[in-house]
Structures are given as C-alpha cells and as structure tokens.
C-alpha cells in the first residue's frame, strides 16, 4: 500500500511538472508533520494546561497530519516568532507554516514561499483603555503605540498614520508576551495587532474590563498557510485539505457524522469528499479517505472556527467574512468534482 502511494505521488509530481514531491516523502518517512505555529496566542495556537496546542492554526496542522499520515496526533508543533517564521520554512525546519500569517505581495513573491488559500480573514485593529476617550483611529494622534516586530502591522501603522497626518510613537516588541505586559502596564496608549489577536489578548489582561478594541480596522489581513515554492504536490495537498474542510461545512459533514456519511451518504459531492468515489486521494498521492480522516480529527471549517475563536471559545468572534460564501462570508471551496 505504502509503495503504491509513493509511486502515485511520484507520478503526480511528474505529471504536474513539479520538481519533486519532496515534502510529502519527507513527512511520510519521518512519520510526523512539523508544523510552524505562533509562540502562543489564544484562539490560534496556544498550549493548554496539558501542553496540548489548541487553536485554529493548531487544528489545521492536525487536519494535514490526519490527511497525510492518517493520524492527527502525529504533529510536532514548532513555536515561531513573527521575525523567524519564514526563515524556519525556507530552511526546511518546518513542513508548513500555520501562524496567523498575513499574505502579501512581498511574502508571496520575494522570499521563495508560496501562499495557499486564506483560512481566516482578519484586519489590523487597536486596543485602548476604555477611560482614554478614544473612539476611532483619528483620536490616536500623538499616541504611543505598542506594535510587534516583523509583522505587517509596523508598515500599516506607518502608512495609515502618515496618510491621515497623525503623529505617533511606535514602541516595537520582539516578543508578544512583553508587548502585552507593556500595554497592560500602561506603557502605550494603544496596542495594535490583528483584531482576532487583540480579542485573545484582552482575555488574558489582568483586568479585561479596562480595555476595548476599536471597531475600526486599518488593513486587510488575509491569514493563511505558507509552504516552500517548488513543491506543487505538497501545496496541492495543503490547499485541498483547506477546501475540504469548507466543502464539509457546506455539505453538512461534521466530525460526529463523517464516518456514517462516508458509508451512507447518497450525495455525489459528499461521496467524493469522503473517498467513496472519485479516487481523489490517489490523485494527490494520499489515501482516498484523507478528508474523512481530517474531518474526523478536527471537524469541518465551521466547527474548527466555533471551537477555537467563535462561540465555543473565550474570543467569541462572529463568523463575519469567515462565514461560508452562501451565508454572506468569503469562505468558498472549489467544487469536489
Ligand atoms: N498577521 C500579521 C501579524 C502576525 C503576528 O505575528 N502577530 C503577533 C502579534 S501582533 C503574534 O501573533 N504573535 C504571537 C507570537 O509571537 O507567538 C503578520 O503576518 O505579520
């Protein structure tokens, strides 16, 4: 079986004109996926009291491990800073990066990396003290702003404040924990980061009621996975797992019912998604039940969202842009056919 899958992967690579199926082979040979995540922030990737990573990014790592290795526990999480995350991928230290990373022109075209479909649409926001009388960004003229080094936020902040002719003093931090500590200690008038991250940050404030997140955001922050350029097979696998989780939500396939649907569903799309027809796994060099394994491990996209950042979490974020396309959001999977 293993030999057959390996030969199929090689054939796919040749057919696709890819340099190699190197990452898939490496992950399989190692028996483990090495997944780059953040050093820890609530909702995306944060170790719980037992040291188990929780969060949307962590679940995406598990979904890929389940799809590729048939076992969602076969993941090694590597905690990366904003600054060293892309180098870790370039050097081969990790197989894939799921680390609240914004896709931009520069990151997609100048550092040898490839950006795969967005799994969380975000925007850059500001947290302020409620008693500071700041309602909108325009009220932040002259403010001292805490910002993390190596993020998209440094440039967005400078661009926006310059365009609006607002002066500000950035206080730049390499580590997120020291940035939070500084903000909660009153060293900055505002703290800026992805709005989702701010929601998570306020849950760990010594006194969350003292702070608010402004409604206004100043940027588009499309967050998604990154892989190395030149390995189309691997890129297609990570992409397909993402689309599969969205398609599962659209077609009502859940963590709880996936196994039963795999044998009983009469819907042609569900049959292909769960590996009963179409041989889609084989075409990617995987087992045909790859999406069944991923969904059984983490649930569909909506379940992953609600558990980690939505109503089942402390962040309680609304689906908003991250809703399905047919419910007013932007999450839209290519059809499984
Ligand atoms: N989405 C932005 C920001 C990502 C980012 O690194 N955010 C910081 C806070 S602003 C963070 O999450 N840090 C968590 C950590 O360092 O573990 C980017 O890709 O540049």
Quick summary of this structure?
By secondary structure, this protein is α/β, with parallel strands linked by helices. It folds into two domains: 2-121 and 223-327, D-Maltodextrin-Binding Protein, domain 2; 124-219, Periplasmic binding protein-like II (D-Maltodextrin-Binding Protein, domain 2, 3-Layer(aba) Sandwich), CATH 3.40.190.
Note the main attributes of this structure.
alpha/beta, D-Maltodextrin-Binding Protein, domain 2, 2 domains, three-stranded parallel sheet, 14 helices, 39% helix, binds glutathione
Helices and strands in order:
Elements: H1 2-16, H2 22-30, E1 33-38, E2 46-47, E3 53-54, H3 56-69, E4 75-80, H4 85-90, E5 96-97, H5 105-109, E6 113-115, E7 120-122, E8 124-129, E9 143-148, H6 152-163, E10 168-173, H7 176-184, E11 190-194, H8 195-203, E12 211-213, E13 221-223, E14 226-228, H9 232-250, H10 258-264, H11 268-273, H12 280-284, H13 290-298, H14 301-308
Parallel strand pairs: 1-4, 1-5, 9-10, 9-11
Antiparallel strand pairs: 2-3, 6-14, 7-13, 8-11, 8-12
The protein binds glutathione (GSH).
Glutathione binds next to helix 6, strand 11 and strand 13.
Q: Could you explain the architecture of this structure?
A:
This protein is α/β, with parallel strands linked by helices. It has two domains: 225 residues, 3-Layer(aba) Sandwich (D-Maltodextrin-Binding Protein, domain 2), CATH 3.40.190.10; 96 residues, Periplasmic binding protein-like II (D-Maltodextrin-Binding Protein, domain 2), CATH 3.40.190. It has 14 helices and 14 strands. A five-stranded mixed beta sheet has the order 10-9-11-8-12. β9, α6 and β10 form a beta-alpha-beta unit. α3 runs antiparallel to α13. The protein is globular and about 60 Å long. The two termini are 25 Å apart. The N terminus is likely disordered. It binds glutathione. The site of glutathione (GSH) has 19 residues, from α6, β11 and β13.
């Amino acid at each position: 079986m293993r030999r057959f899958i390996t030969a199929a992967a090689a054939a796919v690579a040749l057919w696709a004109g890819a340099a190699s199926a190197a990452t898939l082979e490496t992950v399989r040979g190692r028996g483990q996926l090495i997944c780059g995540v953040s050093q820890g922030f609530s909702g995306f990737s944060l170790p719980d009291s037992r040291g188990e990573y929780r969060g949307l990014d962590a679940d995406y790592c598990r979904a890929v491990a389940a799809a590729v290795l048939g076992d969602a526990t076969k993941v090694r999480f590597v905690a990366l800073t904003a600054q060293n995350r892309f180098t870790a991928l370039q050097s081969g230290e990790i197989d894939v990066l799921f680390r609240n990373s914004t896709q931009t022109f520069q990151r997609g075209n100048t550092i040898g990396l490839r950006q795969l479909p967005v799994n969380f649409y975000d925007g850059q926001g500001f947290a302020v003290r409620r008693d500071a009388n700041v309602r909108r960004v325009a009220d932040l003229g002259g403010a001292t702003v805490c910002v993390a080094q190596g993020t998209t936020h440094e440039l967005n902040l400078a661009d926006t404040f310059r365009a609006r002719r607002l002066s500000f003093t950035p206080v730049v931090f390499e580590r997120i924990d020291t940035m939070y500590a500084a903000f909660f200690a009153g060293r900055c008038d505002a703290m800026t980061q992805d709005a989702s991250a701010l929601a998570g940050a306020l849950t760990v404030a010594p006194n969350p009621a003292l702070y608010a997140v402004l409604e206004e955001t100043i940027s588009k922050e499309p967050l998604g996975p990154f892989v190395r350029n030149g390995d189309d097979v691997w890129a297609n696998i990570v992409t397909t797992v993402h689309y599969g989780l969205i398609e599962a939500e659209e077609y009502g396939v859940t963590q709880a019912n996936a196994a039963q649907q795999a044998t009983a569903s009469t819907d042609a799309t569900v049959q292909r998604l769960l590996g009963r027809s179409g041989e889609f796994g084989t075409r990617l060099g995987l087992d045909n039940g790859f999406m069944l394994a991923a969904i059984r491990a983490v649930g569909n996209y909506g379940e992953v969202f609600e558990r980690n950042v939505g109503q089942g979490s402390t962040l309680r974020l609304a689906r908003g842009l991250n809703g399905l396309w047919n419910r007013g959001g932007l999450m839209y999977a290519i059809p499984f056919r």
